[in-house]
Amino acid sequence: MSNTIQAVIWDLDGVIIDSANEHRRAWERLAKEESVKLTDEDFWATFGKRNNDIFAILWGPLTPEQAQLLGNRKETYFRDLIRETAAPLPGSMELMRSLHEASYPQALASSAPIENIQLISEVLGLARYLTALVSGETVPHGKPAPDIFLKAAQELHIDPAHCL
Questions:
Q1: In-domain check, residue 3
Q2: Alpha-carbon distance 81 to 70, whole Å?
Q3: What is the mean pLDDT of residues 98-120?
Q4: DSSP assignment of 53-76, as one string?
Q5: Are residues 71 and 25 in the same domain?
Q6: Residue 75 clears pLDDT 90, i.e. is over it
Q7: Whole-angstrom Cα distance, residue 3 to residue 154?
Q8: Tell me: the pLDDT tens digits for 84-93?
């Protein structure tokens, strides 16, 4: 088996962009409106997980409809913030451009809802470099399970063993 890298799969938060502050502010607003206690420890313990997983931890049992409505509110708050503040992490755009120029297929895989991924891709101008966008909403298991990255490899039509 060759160890040749044939494609690159990017995570979003902490790799392309640092949106932790915007997520924190959106979660804090929602928690305050819903009279739910949210500590710094709670935020960092759940950061990067899918909304439904976070609700199960912080809100307790919810109906799917309740979780959907709360999630929609949180993501609306987040998108309103990120539209104004989105900036790539240093070097990320340059590396993405260089890989594109070298003809490496690239995908963006994130636990985030697809609307967030699309918005950040649009605001930062990432679409020209990417072949696929994969959301944690479309796979059975969120991070730390590898499902989103395996799906991204599948969408790139590249064996995961040949993806970085």
A1: no
A2: 17
A3: 95
A4: HHHHHHT-S--HHHHHHHHHHHHH
A5: yes
A6: yes
A7: 18
A8: 999 999 999 9
